[in-house]
Give the backbone structure.
Amino acid sequence: MYGASMTILNVLSSNPLFNIACVVCFQETKLSSISPAKFRSFGGFHLQDFRSLNAEGTRGSLLTTWNPTLFDCVHEWTGRFSLTVLLKRKVDGKLFTISNVYGPMAANLKINFFIELHSISASSTGAWVMLGDFNVLLSVQDKNRPTANINDILNFREVVQEIGLVDLPIVNKSFTRSNGRDVPTLERLDRVFISNAWVLAFPRSTLHALPWPRSDHTLLVLSAYTFILFVNLFKFESYWLRYPAVLDVVSTAWKSFLPDIDPVKQFSRKIESVQSALRLWSAGISFASREQGKRCVFWIEWLDKAKERREGPGPDGLPMVFYQRFWNLIKDDIMGVFNTFYNGTTNLDKANTGWLCLIPKKKEALSANDFRPISLVHSVAKLISKVLASRLQIFLGGLINPHQAAFIKGRHIIDNFNCAHILIHHLHTNKHRAALLKIDFERAFDRVNWSFLLDLLQARGFSPRWTTWIHTLLQTTSTSVILNGTPGRIFSCKRGLRQVRGRLRRSFNILLTTTCWELWKEQNRRIFDSQLSRSNEIGRKVIDTVTLWQFAL
């Protein structure tokens, strides 16, 4: 008993992290019982509340302790292999389920252990974390030697998937247990599983291993953060152009690279060089000088807003004003990128990245529907899509229905809205029988199938070169989500058209035309006659004028 208490005391005093830990869980304490007085002898000043599961002889026993100034214990329940507490955070009342687990070593008890894990899942509330010594592997890679317990691994994996938990990887270690021999057997038996609710509450949860030479198991520390680390992203400031020295800085950095075979790779390296040079140069501008410069050009910038179109820069941090100002310097590299893109020999992986920003639609935005996604695209992809959209604009009017108005020069969506309003008023006033169908394309741009778009372009007579251009832009698309000003992990896109004003989104008009074709096809088959009404009073006048009006997008 005393030895077990001293072991817990040594653990709590061995690392400063335990002095600020909110919750600490122990497995296999070997204590048959823990009284409040005994707990105070090793619990410390901040870990003053606890729940325990007594040992069976010299095996098992669990101890979960926490800081009572931060949490209240709402409920607790125990099993043969687990101790679960439901804690309520005092500052906001949020609930957290902490399941402390010690799995059996005997093979005949594994099934009962897995059943108990299922029962814990059914009782968990709020953000849930399940941790401890499970005494079973989750993968064959969790042991440095071959294992014969494949069935236990498969059963354990099935349980984890069914209860919907995520295995949190250890950042700095692969195994958590050693048998201590000269040629040791290493295993990962100690794990931390978190629920989806926990991931949403603490998106930056990490698991680290701490050195502990006195035990065959490794101490694990779960760090749960709600904030996102700040990243100093590069952004070209417009007021830098007021300084004559910026011309030399950009010119020197741009010319510092030798020509490369791949124009896109060369262009990307030059942009990175310009970013580094401008970071160093702008750091030399004192805060007072920057503020003075902003005040001096305030009235100029105010006038510029009336004529200068400003857009948020993409991952490269360079707005369009940068290209306008330094065109004579960078035009050869830009045209090199366009030439390889024209010939279909370019790779846009590094120049077709984007950031997905969520713009709140209202002040108190809570759900995902309260945000509007906006894509900030790399300037190279933006330039290419802008050129393609300008070419498409010339012919688009003849390719689509005359009643489609979105992103078409000379057409206005408000006209179709007024026409629909007048038609409804006319039908109602004259008491004509008719059928009006309103279709809402929910997240229309996100659901576009690329294969269908490319097949449709080919069917409408677009050349193979044009479809190759569109395919290249779509296939090389990658995006990361901006959260609190910090970009997340980059992922490849598989469908949809990015929300970049009216550029590639003009292609959606061609997709929408297929809806009108289907209506006309059904009209010719006279299916509307039986679907609208059994009466012949509707007549062919209404049926023969099936029209698609696009008055929202």
